[in-house]
Amino acid sequence: MNESQPNYIVPDSESKKLQMQPFYVVSTLKFWLLSIGTLGFFHFAWFTLNWSKLGKVTTARKEQSIYGKITSKIFFVHALFLNIDNTIRERGIVYAWRPRLLATIYVFSVLINIIGLFVTIEANLFVSLPIWFSKLSSLILISAVLFQAQRAINLACDDPKGRTNRKITVWNIGLILATFFVLTAPIATVDVRVDIPTEKALPNK
């Protein structure tokens, strides 16, 4: 296994090396922060960036509707994982992972999430708690699967720790805050009415 650590890269050349890499490299902290902080929306960008670097994104796919992009995201995960695995093998790197199995787990998890979109969440916190817990568990599972692929990508790009893309940028923070505001907007707009009892008029003497 190639365990040699990459040489130190001066800041001016980090961006250039990042662009030359065949896959999207990102550090562990940044990956998990964006995955959980954006409630999984980062995963769409993750797939797009990796396919773009592989040169697999055609003009037709770029012009797809949102439903087409979701379909591609689900059914092209096997191809992406196998591309990553082939790159690792070609470079003589040994990495114990099972790309086909992980891709299958990802597909089933996403399909379950899509079905869950049609489940109505009750306003009562205690009633909806099991549903929220299942959604959070699914998000963590999906992120964990993609993280295994991310570790393979970092190894394939000779950057095991993802040092070339470890900085949290303003755009990253903005994306997390935007997700937070979108999530809390329905709560902030709830019409709360409180009935204040009026004092009864005293009888005239």
Quick gist of this model?
With 205 residues, the protein is an all-alpha fold. The chain contains 9 helices and no strands.
Describe the structure.
By secondary structure, this protein is mainly alpha-helical. The chain has nine helices and no strands. It has helices spanning 11-20, 28-37, 42-54, 59-62, 66-75, 77-90, 99-116, 125-156, 170-188. The longest helix is centred in the last third of the chain and has 32 residues, at 125-156. The protein starts with 10 loop residues before the first helix and ends in a 17-residue tail after the last helix.
Give the biggest beta sheet: none
Cα end-to-end separation: 99 Å
**Number of strand elements:** 0
Low-confidence stretches: 1-10, 56-61, 188-192
What would you call the quaternary organization? single chain
The residue fraction in helices comes out at: 55-70%
Order of helix and strand elements from N to C terminus: HHHHHHHHH
- List the total number of helices: 9
Strand content: under 5%
The best one-word shape is: globular
Q: What is the mean predicted local confidence, pLDDT?
A: 78
Structural class: mainly alpha
Radius of gyration: 23 Å
